[in-house]
Amino acid sequence: MTRRAVGMVLAGLVLAATPAMAAESPAEQISSFRQKHGEPRVVRDTTLDRIAMDQARAMAAKDDLSHDALGPFTRRVAPAGAGRAAENIAYGYESFEKTLGQWIDSSGHRKNLLLHNASRVGIASARNASGKRTYWAMVIAGDYEPKPKKGKKDKEPLVAVKREAAPASQPKASTCHIKLLSLCI
């Protein structure tokens, strides 16, 4: 092998060993940003991915950047079952890395990226009909209720209350001389 070939192989190995943000998945990029700011990592969630994809496709179909492209966010995110959720949308950038950079530089989008106790994320993009514009949607969520254990029918614990029986009353001395049709005479 020539020196040049050895140098190219070594350079390739160094580049391959260097972690690049572009090589990270969108969830990893978001997690890295969140961890730098004291928030936990997030993982991809298929339900949130579907919600984000539906939103991205609706915006691309209408060629309109709007949180309401498919209706109110609270209704759209309800199937995820999260206690808290937020959505970021964008258009124009081809890569998620550039889109994330735009969100980080925007105070409102940044706040959503740093949603407290978020644990799951969904990310999607779609192109408009001309193929010239890419729409992005990200849904981040947390505060999920624990799923009830199988076999448990009641959500609330059963509480039994023991009551003391009323003391038996002494029979009253009868003052009836004649009892006729439940009348005492």
User: Beta-sheet strand percentage?
Assistant: 15-25%
- Mean pLDDT equals 79
User: Strand order within the widest sheet?
Assistant: 1-3-4-2
Amino-to-carboxy terminus distance: 129 Å
Write down the Rg: 33 Å
- The string of secondary-structure elements, in order, is HHEHHEHHEEEE
Tell me about the biggest sheet? 4 strands, mixed
Number of strands: 6
Q: How helix-rich are the residues, as a percent range?
A: 25-40%
- Which class best fits the helix and strand makeup? alpha+beta
Could you list the spans in which at least 5 consecutive residues all have pLDDT below 50? 5-22, 152-172
Helix count, DSSP H or I runs of 4 or more residues: 6
Shape: globular
List the helices and strands and how they pair.
Layout (H helix, E strand, L loop, with lengths): L2 H15 L8 H11 L6 E2 L1 H17 L10 H5 L4 E10 L4 H9 L2 H7 L4 E10 L6 E11 L34 E2 L2 E2 L1
Parallel strand pairs: 1-3
Antiparallel strand pairs: 2-4, 3-4, 5-6
What does this structure look like?
The protein is of the alpha+beta class and 185 residues long. Helix content is 35%, strand content 20%. The protein is built from 6 helices and 6 strands, in the order H-H-E-H-H-E-H-H-E-E-E-E. The strands form 2 sheets. A 4-stranded mixed sheet has the order 1-3-4-2. A two-stranded antiparallel ribbon has the order 5-6. Strand 5 (179-180) and strand 6 form a beta hairpin. Residues 5-22 and 152-172 have low confidence and may be disordered.
